[in-house]
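Supplementary Methods, section 5.1.

A reviewer requested that the exact input to the structure prediction be made available. We therefore reproduce it here, unchanged from the version used in the analyses.
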Amino acid sequence: MKPEQKKHRLALTLLFAGVIFCFLILTMAVVGGVIIFLVHRGYLEPIGEVPRARHLVLRMMLASVMIGAILSALASRIPLRPVNAIINAMNRLAAGDFKTRLSFGKYLGKHPTAKEITRSFNNLAEELEKTEILRSDFINNFSHEFKTPIVSIAGFAKLLKHGNLTEEQKAEYIDIIEEESMRLAAMATNVLSLTKVENQTILTGVTEFNLSEQIRNCFLLLESKWTKKNITPELDFGEHTIRANEEMLKQVWINLIDNAIKFGDEGSTVRVTITETEKNIFVSIDDTGVEIPPELKERIFQKFYQADESHSGEGNGVGLAVVKAIVKLHNGDVTVSSADRKTVFTVSLPK
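The structure derived from this sequence is encoded cell-by-cell as follows.
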C-alpha cells in the first residue's frame, strides 16, 4: 500500500473514531448535566459537600471520556476492515487485475449484507474479466480479417504490375482483386451497421410492411450465390405483415440467408418458414451442411468470431453479431439449433 493511501485510510479511521467519540462526549455531557441538575434540585443526595460532589461527577465524566476515546479508537478498526478490503479489491480491479475476488472471512462472510456485497463485487469482476477476453479476441480477429484481403489485393496487384501474364491470368487476378475488395466493403458495411445499432437505444423508422415479400426479395438479391452452389430455396410461408424497421430487418434476413448458403452443402435446400402466434412472429431459416458444435452456439453471435477458427472460409464474423443486435433492438430474440447436419436459426419478433 502506498504512503498516500495509508494516510487516506488513517484519515478515514480517525473520522470514524471521531464520530463515535463525539457521540460519546455528547452522551457523557448529557448524563453529567442531568446528574448535576438532579443534585442541585435535591433529587439526589450529594456526597458530602456540593463542591466535592461536583468534582466527583466531573472526574467520572473525564474518566468515561478518556476510556471511551481509547475503546472507540480500538473498536473503530474492526468495522473498517471490510471497508478496507473493498477499497483494496477495487484498486486491484482498477489496475487491471480482473481475477480479483472479494471475501470477508469466515464469520463476517456469513452475514446476508456481506454475502450480497461479495456476490455483487465478484459478479462485476467476472463480467470485467469476460469483457477483457472478448476485447482481446475482437482486436485479434479484427486485425486478421482486415489484413487478409488487403494482403491478397496487394499481392495480385503486384503480379499485374510486373506483366508477363496471359489474358486468362489477368482476368483471374482482376476477379480475385474485385472479390477481395467487395469482401472488405461488406465487412466495413457490417461493422458500421453493428456500431450504429449498438449505439441506438430507441427503435426508430417503424412501419408496417409485408414480411414475406421482404424475405423473397432478399433471396433474389443473393441469387448469384445460391445458383453457384446449386442450392434450392424453399419458401414455406404465406403472406405475413409486421411493424418494424424495414431496412434493419432486411439486414437480418440477408445475413442469415447468406450464412445458410455459405455453410450449406452443394445441391442442398435452404428452407424458410414463418409462423405466427397472437403476439409474435417466428422466422426459421435452416440449411443442411456444416454443424455448429454445442459449445459454440453462443459465441457465434460475438463480434468477429467464426466457428472456423482457421478463418479459411468466407465471412468475417460480423453478420451474426449484426443480426443479434438488430433483433434485440426490436425486443426480439434469435436462437440456433444444430444437429444431424441440419442447422436452424429462429428469429422471434413481436408483432
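Residues 308-316 have pLDDT under 50 and may be disordered. These observations are discussed further in the main text.
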